[in-house]
Amino acid sequence: MEKNLDRLSRADAATLARVRFATTVRLVALAAEAEPGLRAKASARPFSLVLSAPGLPSAGICSRRGAITSWAGGAKAPAGALPPSLVLRFTSSRAAARTLGGGGGAPLPLFFGPGAVSALAFFRPAAARVPAMLRDPATEAALKARLLGEAAMRGLAEVAVSDASLAERLAHVPDGSVAVEAAGAFSIGIAKSGRRIEILDPAPATPSARLTFRDAAGAIAVFTGSRAAVVALGAGEVAVGGLLPLVQGLFAVLDRLGEYMAVGNEGVAR
Amino acid sequence: MSDTGRLSRSLEIFERAAKVIPGGIYGSKAPGFLVPGSYPYYIESAKGCRMRDADGNEYIDYLCGYGSQIVGYGNERVDGPACERASRGDLLDQPAPVMVDLAERLVGGVEGASWAVFMKNGTDATTLAYSLARVRTEKPIAIMASGAYHGAANWCGANPFAALAADSASVLSFRYNDLAGLERLFAEKRGRIACLFLTPYHHPTFRPQEMPDPALYETARRLCDSEGALLVMDDIRGNFRLHPRGSHVRFGAKPDLWCMGKAMANGYPISALLGGDGTRGTANSFFITGTYWMSAVPMVAAMATMDEMERLGGVPRLERLGLLLKEGLESAGKEVGFGARVSGPPAIPFLTFDEDPDLYLNQRFGAAMARRGVFMHPHHNWFISLAHDEDDIAQTIGRSREAFAAMASGAE
User: Fold this and answer.
1) Which of B4, B161, B165 faces A236 most closely, judged by CB atoms?
2) What CATH number has the domain spanning B8-71+313-409?
3) Residue A55 in 3-state DSSP?
4) What is the ipTM metric for this complex?
């Protein structure tokens, strides 16, 4: 895949933007759960914030009564979510991918309600805080693993449905559910049906397959690409049980997600 | 549950391997295909039906080098002549006379065959079969059963990447034993079908094995005849474990081409493509070669293996041992409440659990058996060899009883 966002095909740029929509809203929500300062900003006033770009399914985040929820991939806002207080409208998929990837630019803010200012006051620092949390050695391994795991699963769901090159591969992968877990860090469920991958929260108690990291460090190593999943498997740092062809098939989607995540902004591959 | 202490050297070697070999171990031998941490990654030596891993643990082996061992590891009656041939030269400028001996023996033995060519791996044979079928019929399409394995080539879907999709675009599949589906596929693609690939029976990974519908081969032959397509029997896994004259004889099939390999030379690298008179002309004019395809040692080993199979009791003995294993395992499972079921022909068994299509129990059982010194793959069919005997089977069943009991109590 092309590594420069400017040269990425329109379809790939749209997939990348979907991934960044989904991971941004989820990680911002998790960051607010983890950091009291962000949580306070989110709780200042109830709001609902929507990310939008032409041709893309929107993603959103809602803060209400101390609870922060997020949605993406065209999914409906969860029950109880407020109507949008603020829509951040990007001019194109490419612009969305660039801005949310830290490459500059700004969306057009459309104010719809009294929570809009609070939404903006929360979202800007929270979105900036997520990459800093991931880089910061002081961030607890369990939180880092959770952020990376959630980002990987959200990205997986978007890439699977949006990247046409995976259609053939996914047709060979059996349907079913997977629980992805790291002891003491996170437990995320996904369900694959055809090309569609849905996030299950909580993870199913009896999934078709389980992918279990021995610890947070093992999950971080695999999700950041510093350890190949197949090698981590062999070394016992991650265990797979149940319907293996399902997990193996999802590894291929994760590999493709890794290619998207390696796309850089300004002519230099990251 | 991992067992890293017992397998520490395997893991140590794997860590070294991961630095210089993609994935550490690739393909069907990759740790992820087994139960990582419970099975050995490296095998140091083997004799008969027993092998020793890199840590010195011994196993009764039911994978048999993925089926290539049929008269036992280190069989002197095979290795002796092979070593003697090696001392006189293996890969020569021209073929050694033994190539003709082997071709005559296969053509005389495999019912319906009238010519043979040799290569190294099963994929070589199936790929050549597909090429010959396309040339012979001047049509592009191959049909195969979904889930069937015909090799590691792109055309048969081993690597379903979008960038390689064109390589397999002419390969279509039907659900095994779905005769109406097969008829429909032939009708839809009439005039464009080069060949139908079938394994003697269906042996997909991760699933119970399936014996052919009694009408499958009659239907397949009729459809191929009316289309002018070739029926290709991929007998690489069944090879001499189902019938001494070729697995097709057991099921009354009448193929045009036969792919053979694996047990053919008891682990020496050789495979073969055999054909009937109808395909001889195409084979005559096709450029068939590979640097090592005419090496003499595997051909000598193949001749010796066929002698040894006969001497050791051949298919009837394999069947008897396989039945003992099947009955023993199923009954040991039932004793503690598991719906353990062994599918496939007795000489190529595979155990699954009725209550667990996701194979968690397979993985627990395989791991529990590996810890008890029995190598039974959790996801791929097993193989009986003529080096196994009643005592090996009895020991295996005894250990399975322990494994099932441990699983039932959650203490494995």
Assistant:
1) B4
2) 3.90.1150.10
3) coil
4) 0.86
